[in-house]
């Protein structure tokens, strides 16, 4: 059941972005930044966690989930460490993925050639 | 202009209208929905698997994001993600696999300009804004939440 909800919610967020592509003058970069910031803000208001509980991957996979994970790390680490956590917490959850992207980016750029 | 000519012109314009390519917005939306949905199902699969082996939900979330980034990076290097993006539009850009795609594609493209000034400087050319504004938004949203929580305590 959660797989169906994940499909519907993840798809719906992408449809919202596609509508913004097609009907507004905003560039894809603006739309993606907007979604990330919205996700981070919703988590701050305690609204993204319920969506994650209901939709799982559908809330986690879109960039809104990336933004929400940044806020979540900040709150988690600030509760644990105090003020330092506001800073160290930024990459507490997303850091694993970011380091993966950087390391793989370098390795794959050596192994694979762009086709053009 | 007599009536017959007017009729002919009207028929002509109707014909033009019918033959004009329609904006493919419904098709674009469907493709974005389908692709975003499928990637979310894959993410849910990773989340289920990591929830069993990771000690906390936060760590399962972290591992899921990293696994999706791994997948996006791999598909980019194989040249598959470009085709998915062509098909899906926002359905390929919005999932976190798309973030990995922009990082790895930039690394591959700019390597020829050198490892430091090319790859090093330009790897986050597209993904950078998401990282910068995500960090700023996450910091302040977290600060706000912590402030409210400590006031309520």
How would you describe what is shown here?
The complex is a heterodimer of chains A (116) and B (153). Chain A has helices at residues 2-23, 28-44, 48-55, 57-60, 63-81, 84-88, 95-111. Chain A has seven helices and no strands. In chain A, α2 packs parallel to α5 (63-81). In chain A, 79% of the residues lie in helices and 0% in strands. Chain A has 116 residues and is mostly helical. Chain A is globular. Chain A has one domain. Chain B is an all-alpha fold. Chain B folds into two domains: 3-122, no CATH class; 127-153. Helices cover 84% and strands 0% of the residues of chain B. Chain B has helices at 3-19, 25-53, 57-77, 80-88, 90-93, 96-110, 115-122, 128-152. In chain B, α2 (25-53) packs across α3 (57-77), α3 (57-77) packs across α6 and α6 packs antiparallel against α7. Chains A and B meet through α1, α2, α4, α5 and α7 of A and α2, α3, α5, α6 and α8 of B.
Give a short summary of the structure.
The complex is a heterodimer of chains A (116) and B (153). Chain A is mainly alpha-helical. Chain A has helices spanning 2-23, 28-44, 48-55, 57-60, 63-81, 84-88, 95-111.
